[in-house]
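pls design
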């Protein structure tokens, strides 16, 4: 599995040289997609404008057709399976830090409840919502080609507008969510994303958040369906799978990268959570 640490590395596959912290596609035909799964370490909004595509997202299979939208957060793992000859996609990538510049609430994205499956949502829009979202993406593309004093601010506000429109659609449709967000669970998840390699023990997170272990378990379990320990392990497993896809890294390198005390402890963790040893998994893939 390929690890894409930023927007620029993802776009390099398509020969696109992007120097910004955001990218809006033209929506033209895309001939090739990465064959291996990759991790999206940025936010993405992707709208299918024609044809269909089959995807595997966090090990779940989906087919997206015209008016379908994928909204994803960092750590989402995507594998392209197959697309129809007439498939077209309009997409937006952006970094968290770019969007949140000059915004006082650092958790505004999480508070919108956009991610019904913890890190992503797939849904189909009605004609009105589809045209609204598509027009905002087209406007973003147009503004991204203009050099102005306030260009980045206009792009930020338009991205927020799009996210609010999509959040409104989710709320209006009453789409069931697997994650009933709370401020504490949002802060916990954000800390885990930042520090799961260094801190695998729940104690670090309870100390940082100034809450008891019992309270954190209750809140996170209610919000995500997982205990804090399971949430951390899931993040570690996803990262392990990504790194195992990088054949230039040895299993020793991966254990070191993830701050395990030894290769043996990493192997035990991986087998307990995936059913395979790291070597078996790498051979299988």
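designed seq:
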């Amino acid at each position: 599995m390929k690890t894409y640490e930023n927007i620029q590395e993802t776009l390099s596959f398509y020969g696109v040289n992007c120097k910004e912290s955001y990218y809006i596609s033209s929506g033209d035909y895309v001939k090739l997609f990465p064959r291996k799964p990759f991790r999206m370490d940025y936010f993405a909004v992707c709208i299918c404008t024609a044809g269909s595509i089959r995807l595997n997202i966090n090990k779940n299979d989906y087919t997206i057709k015209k008016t379908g939208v994928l909204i994803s957060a960092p750590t989402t793992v995507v594998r392209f399976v197959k697309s129809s000859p007439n498939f077209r996609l309009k997409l937006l990538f952006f970094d968290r830090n770019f969007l949140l510049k000059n915004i006082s609430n650092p958790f505004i994205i999480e508070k919108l409840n956009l991610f019904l499956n913890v890190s992503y949502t797939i849904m189909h829009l009605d004609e009105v919502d589809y045209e609204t979202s598509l027009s905002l993406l087209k406007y973003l593309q147009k503004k991204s080609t203009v050099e102005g004093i306030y260009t980045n601010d206009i792009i930020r506000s338009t991205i927020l507008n799009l996210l609010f429109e999509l959040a409104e659609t989710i709320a209006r449709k009453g789409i069931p969510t697997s994650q009933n967000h709370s401020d504490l669970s949002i802060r916990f998840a954000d800390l885990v994303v930042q520090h799961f390699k260094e801190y695998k023990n729940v104690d670090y997170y309870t100390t940082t958040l100034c809450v008891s272990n019992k309270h954190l378990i209750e809140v996170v379990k209610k919000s995500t369906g997982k205990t804090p320990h399971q949430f951390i392990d899931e993040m570690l497993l996803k990262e392990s799978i990504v790194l195992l896809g990088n054949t230039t890294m040895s299993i020793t390198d991966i254990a070191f990268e993830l701050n395990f005390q030894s290769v043996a402890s990493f192997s035990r963790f991986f087998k307990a959570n995936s059913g395979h040893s790291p070597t078996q998994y790498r051979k299988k893939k």
